[in-house]
Amino acid sequence: MNKSIHIVKILIMTCVGVLLLSACGKEVASDTNETTTLNISTVSVPHAEILEVIQDDLEAEGVVLEWSILSDGIQSNQQTADGQFDANFFQHTPYLEQVNEDSDLDLVEVTGVHIEPFGVYSETLDSIDDLPEDAKISIPKDPVNFSRALELFAANNIIELDEKITSDYTLQDITENEKNIEFTAVDSELLVHSLADVDAAAINTNYALEGDFKPLEDALIIEGNESPYVNILVARPDNADDEAIQKLKEQLHSDKVKEFIEEEYNGAVVPAF
Hints:
This protein is an alpha/beta fold.
């Protein structure tokens, strides 16, 4: 009788042990399969295309990358600050600084990724020398890119700007406008469409690419590779150092991304790392 009870105890202990091992096995499996999802706000070209290049590599590191195509940069920054997005990838540093100041945000730069040289395009002109008197030119509405556009025209001797000012140019800072150009501020995402109504437009490269322009071939004038307007990955102060964000940063600086940018965009987009 005692022997039977002893055998039953052994069987019970064995079953409990098996169950515990099974439970532990599930916990280990769960730990090894844990993933973190990063929700990114971005634009389609070239930013989302770059993210697509590293999506699988990030997932292999336990980071699932999801993104939404934004319709408004200021709103995207606000949504990132509010936690609707973990980060965003669409803007350059001066734009972020301006939005932070204007909207009282404290978003931070995680890293610089690439430069998109800013260019001037036309549906009717073959050369910037063909720009007529009283030409109508549309340029980005936001203050940072508005100033950037004026700087580009000044660098190509089309206008002159007040030498006492070094940034944040407005129309009042134009000191010489020989051709009496009329500059019109337009939302950046609408600049390509504005070409039907103007002689030329200064367009950010991402929107020019979306409009099927080839910047190095089609731009009447274009910034050089030394442009200070590096496109950056942006996050909040509370999550910028998170492991998943840092893994994204490392992948954005990978040789794979560098090679993709150089081969895909032929100089229209330039790696900044």
